[in-house]
Amino acid sequence: MTPPEAMANAPARRPAGGSEGFILVAVLWILGALATFVTIYSLYIGTTATAAAARDETFATRSLATAAVELAASRLAGLPLGDRPRHGEVVFQMGKARVSAVFQEETARIDLNSASRQLLIGLFTVLGAEPATAEQHADRIIGWRAPPSGPDQNAELALYRDAGLSYGPRAAPFVQVDELWRVVGLSPALVEAALPHLTVFSGRAEVNVQHADPVVRAAAAAAPRPDGVEGPRPGTDAAAQVITASDAVRVVVRIDFPGGRQRFAEAVILVRNFGDAPYRMLSWRDELPLHAPGMGAGGSRG
Known about the structure:
The chain is of the alpha+beta class and 302 residues long. 39% of the residues lie in helices and 16% in strands.
């Protein structure tokens, strides 16, 4: 037998499977939860900072683009219409951003409301349409913009009804080039290809081929002659062509921010003495793709 004294001095035994394991698991769980919280918080802070920077950049884009348009307008407004440059560029540095504004007279594009049937046929032909399709597309555009007049207008309206559309032709000028999507019977692929070369602001039946992009120049050359004579149309030679200047000007702005980020904006302005201002805004877009047309050949929707 164990002496009573030895029993009294023996260390007390802890219960089997004590609480040490439970406490360790709880501590590890808390540490894991804290690590997850820290990770989520870090992601939140990073996302918030990125969103704030993007928001600030958006506000800066609008301000810088507006300043670029103002500078382009001021370069043109002080000259008589016939003496103004028909295209050019304004470049400046503001803070850490470099801003470039390319301006070009709107006569470099085909006007949906003024272009002849032949010029429209030439455009769709150059874009790959068969001759019969190009003619039909030109007829539908003219049918959309033509004022109501007797049986022709009724026949045009019947095309929209037969297509199951709830509307008919506007029977008035196009308000914007994107309205071309609503014209019945037009190939979506051809519409998308044509839009960068169109305008509703030129007010000219012909185009300034000297400053037009290659597609517009080719369309002017491919347009069938109204007299039915074979061969190039007169006036499509850039060196010989003279077209009345227009005071509608397109300004495409590119802003280069630090880090290689770029933003684009585009405006069409009417440069004229309005008394209280040297120009008026006809169109404005500042959500353009990264490789915005209009900085070189081609152009964006207008």
